[in-house]
Amino acid sequence: MSEEEDAVGDLEDGGALAGIRWAGESAYGRLLEDYDPATGHDQGWIGYTAHKLLLDRLNRVFSCGPYAVGGGDAQAGLDVVAAGLGDTYLTMPRIPAGAVALADLNKSPGWQSSTWRWLMASYPHGTVDKIRWQQKSPTKRRVAAQPSPDAPTLPFEELEAFEDFSSLIEPEGPGAADLIARTLVLAHSVHPEFRVREFFIGRPRMNSDGGKAWWWRYDLLSSAPGAGGFAPVSPQPAPLAPSPHVVPDAPVRRRQKPQEATGPEAIG
Q: Which residues does residue 197 pair with via DSSP β-bridges, in sequence order?
């Protein structure tokens, strides 16, 4: 079994993927609802707002941070969780508190389910395979320097970067080293004019050699059960519905010309 299959299976079984999908839908739904370039909203506003909203939604659905509750009760504190969500609250999966925990890495927001941790990263829409991890934050660079268990042989530069990553974050407790080796990235972007989103989770690859940006990545939109509300929004405008006041034309019968008429019923 590949690491992708292992990770996706574990996160799906624990309900984490359902929560992540909902968080992305709710966060970007609100962003696109509020986005108005006429008021001065620009790419900077989009990036900041997407980060804040996605952080908030992930904490809500997993009962983390300001939405933490005790006892594993998925119904506890729902009045607080529902505040400000509107209709997206109705589609929020009920995940027991404690199933997912906060797992920040060097002050970079992170969450952990089972033995998998993920951090967030944004990128310009349509460039998920062109992310230059060496240009990201030190934390993201260190995560991208992790070797993939599906490709254990690394160039010297990547192996050296991974050793730097390990030395800067000292594991504590049993299994901590394994947790470090299982840090993923949740990559997200949007095209506000076309209202098209992208949402992936995967293992980044340090691509200072100009190669691929991921050891593997999993598309959270195309893999959503029943496509749901996560399918990208089509940039083509929907056909206008007919006005309720428009009366359909009466049927018109074509009158035959004399040369077309035959038989005794012909009109001369």
A: 190
Residue 229: burial class (beta carbons within 10 Å; 0-12, 13-18, 19+): middle
- The alpha carbon dihedral of 4, 6, 9, 15 has a sign of negative
Of the candidates 72, 66, 77, 122, the one whose C-alpha atom is nearest the C-alpha of residue 100 is: 72
Q: Which tokens is 48 given?
A: 């900041």
C-beta of residue 18 within 8 angstroms of C-beta of residue 93: yes
Degrees (nearest 5) of the Cα angle 211, 214, 219?
Answer: 135
Q: Mean pLDDT over residues 248-264, rounded?
A: 44
Sheet harboring 101-102: ordered strands across?
101-102, 110-113, 116-122, 183-191, 196-204, 214-219
User: Whole-angstrom Cα distance, residue 209 to residue 204?
Assistant: 14
Region 238-243: mean pLDDT is: 35
- Fill in the amino acid letter for 50: A
Residue ranges of the domains in the chain?
Answer: 3-227
**CA 226 to each of CA 166, 176, 221, 222: distance values in angstroms, whole numbers, following the listed order:** 40, 36, 10, 9
- DSSP conformation class of 4: H
Query: Residue 234 is encoded by which pair of tokens?
Result: 């089509």
Query: What are 121's strand-pairing partners?
Result: 187
> Which amino acid, residue 47?
G
Is the model more confident about 160 or about 80? 80
Q: For 219, which DSSP code?
A: E
